[in-house]
Amino acid sequence: MSRPSTRSKNKRNRQGDNVDNTSEILRKIHATGEITNEDIYTLYQISKPVCQGCRVNSKDNPNCFCGLIPPPNGSRKSGLWQKTSEILQTLGPDPSQDLRPSADSPAGLTNLGATCYANSILQCLYMNKSFREGILLVEPEVLEQQPVLNQLSRLFAQLHASKLAFIDSSPFVKTLELDNGVQQDSHEFLTLLLSLLERCLSNSKVSRAKSIVQDLFRGSVSHVTRCSQCGKDSEASSNMEDFYELELNVKGLKSLGESLDDYLSVEELHGENQYFCESCKSRVDATRSIKLRTLPDVLNFQLKRYVFLPKTTTKKKITSAFSFPGVLDMRKRLSDPSQGESVYDLSAVLIHKGTAVNSGHYVAHVKDEKTGQWWEFDDEQVSNLGSHPFGEGTSNSNTKPVKPEPVDRSCMEQKNAISMGEEKVHVECNANNRKIQGDTVCSSLPSHLCDEIESFNASYLDACEQYKFKKEEEMNNITERRQEVRSILSEAPVQQLEETFFWISTDWLRQWADNMISPALDNTSIQCSHGKVPVSKVGHMKRLSVKAWTKLFSKYKGGPELANDDYCMVCLIDGARNVVCADSYRDRRIIMKQVAEDALAAKCSGGIYYVSKSWLQQWLKRKILDAPAEADAGPTASIRCPHGELMPEHATGAKRLLVPENLWLFLYEDALTVKPDDHLGCFPFPSDSAQCSQCSDELSEVACMEDSLRLVRLKQRQTHEKLLTGKSVPLSLHCKYYLIPNSWLSKWKNYITANGKNISSVEKPETLDGIMDLLKCEKHSQLLERPVDLVQKRGLISQKSPVDGLILITENDWKSFCEEWGGIEEKGISAEIELSSTEENNLAGSCEEMPMGEEDLSTPNHVNGEVECRRLMIKTCPEICEDCIGERESRELMRKLDYCNEDIYVYFVHGKEAPKSILKPSQTNFDPDRRVSKRSRRTKTGDQISLKVSGSTTIYQLKMMIWESFGIVKENQGLHKGTRIIEDESATLADMNIFPGDRLWVNDSEIHENRDIADELSDQKMDAQHTEEGFRGTLLTTNVSSQVV
């Protein structure tokens, strides 16, 4: 057997041959009345071969089952063959994804927006076992009265024993009344939180809980002032002050040791700063220093990485590297080194990521006392760092804790560390005692919290199991359903021509193959009114094998059952008759088409009925079909007037034509077949029908009016021939002229020159009386417009081509216009052209003096032969009102500058001078409603960019946009509009007269060093804020306890 060709398997089969074969068979059936099996095979396409993979399901082949399902590795956007992961999304999120990897892996905390600073501090406090146990020992009755303490204990209990990988911190944050959207200082948060907790815990009767804050975090210092003359300390030097953390300088210092030395350094007091010694009874030189008296079990260091810049009144972050040891010996720094053990082990490092002060991100690196492992707490994400504070490599929280190793006691460096916690190294027996107490899941929790956590864990694990069960059930259903579809479709084709088969609806089969749940089998859409299968439904059904049909019918029921011998004889015979009728109609229409062509060509005599000429021309252009179409209606609709009679032929669209009776009857029959109720559209008009007298009279009146208008317009064209032709009116000195608006003159020209169909639709100009009144201001009765500019060349004076404003006309033209258009001669605005010297320009005359174009300054005076420079002046009566014009122009300028979200264009010029094309003034006649073509909308290409700005945009904001687009730092930008330099950054674009569509250019001075725009943006955001509120308005700053009333 030869290999099948696949070259054209994706091409659609030509249907011409099939249509011809079908028509021939139907004609034969109509002629003989006999239907053979071969006829059935051909008409129902049964004899077509079984398709072997055309990709797109063929409607013309009932044996094609391709495209009903995707290929083996394919998928679809919806339904049964959607990607499995997308189908499972209907089950909702998998709760087991939030499961804590192991009991030894700490849990994270949710970030509610900008609460990473609080999360980091809470994780540091929780990981301190002594503090955690102290909080959890608080009595339930005390917790009921202290909301903050209650929520903190619940949070610690969840972090300790919950099965969740991260805990919701919102109840605690809401109780403190913190603003989720504002980043705060972690150091301030820790200080205020410990102070609040100290007050709350004072109500507890459990000694270990009551003083846990003081026992763990409180140390004491003294500020010692010593006289250099007698060597005695001041009386206040013996006073001790409590501290919860030591604030150390970082600027200019490289290590924790240097910062501690700086903190404890001795300050010399001399000169104006001398100290008054009580013993010496005089002001003497002295020294001042801080002495560490006692140190807490947990020693916190706050690194002062933020410095205040007086010049800019802003803060900057110091990002220099800072080293600190793994083990810190504080004995030599105590005022009394013999106090006892003062060796500290690094237990936590708080890190601020980012260069800005008021933004960035906080993370905490904390050591687990139990395992010795370091963990990174980044909100919900918790990562294992191994035995080093900053990790030997990156590992996530799913990694199993490795075996504890000795802490590297050499120094470590970090650029973003802002706080460190050190814990005292206790003797081995104490450490062993802690380990003996070991933390099981709930053994160290109070009973009320233990019950709550166990209940929550049980509910959560049950939800995980339920989801797992639903997922497995859904996966099994999907697999089973897909296997069923593939199996039945593989058995669906009927291999033999004579083999028994069943018809099935293609629409139902496609739904069944594409949906998870299928409805009952439905074949009603492929049935005819006789309950059989008509040949017209061949494209909507498939030929199914008995085996495949049995499986589908037994499972999905429904029906009806349509076998291979259920073809409809009645429909076949009717179809055959319709084909023959269609052939007859086509033959008749071909004949009538020739008659119509002869009628249009005036070759046909004996016309009896009128039809619309345009309608008949369109009828001839239409394709000949098997039956009348909707366009065949209304052959006389356009020649029938509103009064029901024949429209006069000279009316618009009423051209008509006489056609023979046989053509009229054919057209009339088709029109009623398509629209049986539309008798008016095919109303017969015999050749002797009279035209509507009423319509004829109306058309005659219109024709008379148009004739009279033509005469009026002809007369005005003759009177104002020079104005109409657009020839420049010759002007002379000391002659009287009149001014009229150029807009009115343009409208008059359009009206006078209109002809043909446009004559009645052209807008008529307004009367001159009202127009001239509008040219004068009410306040001063002076002129509100300026005359057009004048040009003098070769001794001839003429007007510049006007766009708007006032234009000069002769006195005769003015008088004629007054007669023709209702003007009053006395209300006219007269004008006279004069030459004036420069000195005379400064003198006030009785009438307004208007200086003209600069090109006229050097023209010689041809009147009196003087050589001095003169300027052409127009003296108007009434005078020009400069006050009102100034106010109007000012308002117009303000309107133009009051724009929003419009384009300006900025060019990056490599060099000091810009090209002439950029220096040319921009078009400032901005129309916000004008549509801009796609071709003229400029986009960022190379060294040119379009920016969306508003009139209120500041030059600073514009420079920031340019910085972001071209990478030129703000200080290096030389911004220009034309030749003008734009420097004032506080000014707005409106202040600098920058309009929409303006072209600016910028060059790079390269004086200042490049820097990240993010630093500028963060500083800008900080400067824009009001005075920092900090934690004002929260429970952290209340002077009273948060006790429930």
Annotation keywords:
39 strands; Ubiquitin-like (UB roll); eight-stranded mixed sheet; five-stranded antiparallel sheet; flat; 1045 residues; 29 helices; 34% helix; disordered N terminus; single chain; alpha+beta
Protein model, in words:
With about 1050 residues, the protein is α+β, with helices and mostly antiparallel strands. Among the domains are: about 585-690, no CATH class; about 735-740 and about 770-890, no CATH class; about 900-1010, Phosphatidylinositol 3-kinase Catalytic Subunit, Chain A, domain 1 (Ubiquitin-like (UB roll), Roll), CATH 3.10.20. It is built from 29 helices and 39 strands. Strands 5, 10, 14, 15, 16, 17, 18 and 20 form an eight-stranded mixed sheet that branches. A hairpin with a 2-residue loop joins β37 (about 975) and β38 (about 980). α7 (about 145-160) crosses α14 (about 445-490). It is flat and about 145 Å long. The model is unreliable at about 1-15, about 395-410, about 425-440, about 840-870, about 925-940 and about 1020-1025 (pLDDT under 50).
Write the layout of secondary structure elements.
Blueprint: H1 16-32, H2 37-43, H3 84-88, E1 108-109, H4 116-127, H5 129-136, H6 140-145, H7 147-161, E2 166-167, H8 170-176, H9 186-201, H10 207-210, H11 212-217, E3 219-227, E4 241-243, E5 246-249, H12 256-263, E6 267-269, E7 275-277, E8 282-284, E9 286-294, E10 298-304, E11 306-309, E12 314-317, E13 322-324, E14 327-329, E15 343-353, E16 361-367, E17 374-378, E18 381-386, E19 412-414, E20 417-424, H13 428-437, H14 447-491, E21 501-505, H15 506-514, E22 521-522, E23 541-545, H16 546-556, E24 558-559, E25 562-563, H17 569-600, E26 609-612, H18 613-621, E27 656-659, H19 661-674, H20 693-719, H21 721-725, E28 736-741, H22 742-753, H23 768-774, E29 790-793, E30 796-799, E31 806-810, H24 811-821, E32 829-836, H25 838-841, E33 848-851, E34 871-877, H26 882-897, E35 902-908, H27 916-919, E36 944-949, H28 955-966, E37 973-977, E38 980-982, E39 999-1004, H29 1013-1024
Parallel strand pairs: 1-2, 5-10, 22-24, 35-39
Antiparallel strand pairs: 3-4, 3-9, 6-9, 7-8, 10-20, 11-12, 13-19, 14-15, 15-16, 15-20, 16-17, 17-18, 21-23, 21-25, 26-27, 28-31, 28-32, 29-30, 32-34, 33-34, 35-36, 37-38, 37-39
Helix pairs in contact: 1-17, 7-8, 7-14, 17-18
Organism: Malus domestica (Apple)
Catalytic activity: Thiol-dependent hydrolysis of ester, thioester, amide, peptide and isopeptide bonds formed by the C-terminal Gly of ubiquitin (a 76-residue protein attached to proteins as an intracellular targeting signal)
Family: Belongs to the peptidase C19 family.
